[in-house]
Amino acid sequence: MKGTHPGLSLQGLRLAPAQVWGGFRLVPLLRDDVRGDLRLALRRYGEDVTAVELGGKPSGKAARPVYCSYVPHALVIDWGRRGQPAVSFGGQLLRGDGTRLRLGPYTARVTARMARREGSQRLRLLPLHLALEGYLALHFGGPDVAWSEYSERAVSRGLSPRVEVTTSGWGVQGLEDALRVFEIHTGQCGVLAYVGDVLAAAFVVSHPDDYRALHRSLIEDVYGDLVVRYGQLYSELGTLAPELRVPRAAGLDDLRAALRELRAAWSDVQGYLTDELFARPLSYERVYTL
Question: When comparing pLDDT for 185 and 256, which is higher?
Fold first, then answer.
């Protein structure tokens, strides 16, 4: 299923005051109403490269299409019956996913499909695979019309292999330190990460405990050249701090009211930084239905 949507929103989430470390501004996303029947967990892969079969029936003697990429981990989704809490993935015993191969000094993993069902109430996703596959399909698909300059092979079998070069979070100077000193809030389910006040990543999950376990996985994600350069250029960011105004505080109630106003002002200020993410239309393709 494909379609368009007016854009993403922060429905169910609220912005907490940003934390700044060097050139990084990390904005926590808090969830007040936390459900317990949808959980995410990390399954780490230690191979140098991963080949993912994209599915579909092979035509003639041609092999199935395979996607080769840097896939450091998978996300495993567990869901319970309606209204019942799901068991945390860390407390279960599961079979490994995929096959590990050794190719000389390198290791490779061969796995199947972007999203794969594991049992009746579990699904395995490859998040970086999904992101890069969508990016390549969007920007490397070629013109929408078949020009005469296209060869018969390009029209019938597709374009040449699509390749994109990215850098993992380990190569973004200062990102590991920013995540290490980052204070995780109660009820935090996500984060917006800015480098030089340019949006670098948005990461949201359903449960605060899952976010704590997945927080540092941001340094394994992939980032573009601009983010890497901004990590090198911006050693310090400007201050975006509303003032706490308590001209005549008669007691704790006045201080609480002033604090509520300050937090609302924080959300407004940080809302200007999120326009890049939420103000644009969204194209989507449904990969799997639970």
Answer: 185
Asked if 202 contacts 192 with a C-beta cutoff of 8 angstroms, the reply is yes
237: number of Cβ within 10 Å: 17
Tell me what the mean pLDDT of segment 55-76 comes to.
67
89 and 210 Cβ atoms separated by less than 8 Å: no
Residue 216: pLDDT over 80: yes
Identity of the amino acid at 40: L
Q: What is the pLDDT of residue 91?
A: 41
Residue 118 token pair: 């594991």
Long-range CB pairs of 2-5 (<8 Å, 24+ gap) are 2/283, 2/284, 2/285, 2/286, 3/283, 3/284, 4/281, 4/282, 4/283, 4/284, 5/281, 5/282, 5/283, 5/284
CA distance 208 to 204: 10
Banded model confidence at residue 211, pLDDT cuts 50, 70, 90: very high
